[in-house]
Amino acid sequence: MWLHFLGTGSSFPTTRRGVSALALRHDDGPVWLFDCGEGTQIQFQKTSVTSQKITAIFISHLHGDHLFGLPGLLCTISSQLGEEGEAGKKVVDIYGPKGINKFVNTALHISCSPLIYSFRVHELVPIASQYPEDWEWGSEGDETVPAISHLKQLSGSTITPVADSQGNLHWPLMNNDRWCVQAGWIHHRVPTFGFVLIEKDRPGTLDSTKLTSLGVKLGPMCGELKAGRSVVIGSGRTVRPEEVLGPSIPGRTLVILGDTNDASPLAHLVSECDVLVHEATHGDALAEKAVLYGHSTPLRAVAFAQQIQAKTLLLNHFSQRYHPADSQGHNKEESVELLADEGRQAASGSSLNVMCADDMFVFDIPPRSRAQSSK
């Protein structure tokens, strides 16, 4: 799997950096997009990732620099798919805070934008404490679905929080044979969510020597065993998967956050983490300003990474005051190199790997060793 950072700036796009958009490209092809700031469709064109492969979009919160690019991207996907092929079978699932459905439908409806594929919108219902005191809509139902929904919209879902035995909350988003995806709330100026992606353990490799010795012929039976199901061979003997499979391949855990000055409310969802994507809008010298506006610094990001035992911390969502690391004519204090240094200094003495992810940075998520205990 690979993380492609399409936009890593805050507030507004510039000629040197786009705003929030992160694509997760899976080993088997599909792409999941996290946030979709203005100009994301342009950023896609600068990478090897195709937006036509998107199957799920996760919006962390409803600030413009995280979703203004969504209507345009949905339309671009439609135009690139063409009228033939698999477009009729394609469905994109969109997850976001309550209000995202109205935003998507209003933009597509008023602009008379047709789509040739289907989409579903799943709204996460925030808890009361996530709303600021001056919130003018949203907590009392003003964001009701428009009277006219898009012709290609399928029925979505309203996702309410689930509490564990300790009263900790999570929002269940997806649970299939490969992934369990949950959202947790994090502190920001508007209702905001972070996403926890837990890859399930995969079956180990079939041992051809054991298969032969047991009399299992190559073919459909091998597929059944690989899928974890027992088979009955010609002699009448039942062969169990554990007899012919090597050690399972442990799944990975990713945590991808939106804007926040404190992500601790979702820490209970993570026992160990391979990769954490965490914002660092300002340097540590501007910590007071960062917190005032609901943002973080490298020091705060490292503290949370260590709380959830992350192996790698990827910083993003930089104030446009910080130039990309490869910019010419700027000293370290004016670039993200400052933020990277502050993060590494905060993590010194630990095994945490800290990196700044500027636009077009690609991170190859390493697989876990079979020797690692599975979750």
UniProtKB/TrEMBL annotation:
Keywords noted in UniProt: Endonuclease, Hydrolase, Metal-binding, Nuclease, tRNA processing, Zinc
Pfam families with a match to the protein in the record: Anti-Pycsar_Apyc1
GO MF: 3'-tRNA processing endoribonuclease activity; metal ion binding
One GO cellular component term noted in the UniProt record for this chain: nucleus
HAMAP family per the UniProt record, alphabetical: RNase_Z_BN
Cofactor(s) this protein cannot do without: Zn(2+)
Known partners and oligomeric status: Homodimer.
InterPro entries assigned: RibonucZ/Hydroxyglut_hydro, RNase_Z/BN
CDD domains the UniProt entry points to: RNaseZ_ZiPD-like_MBL-fold
Stated name of the protein: Zinc phosphodiesterase ELAC protein 1
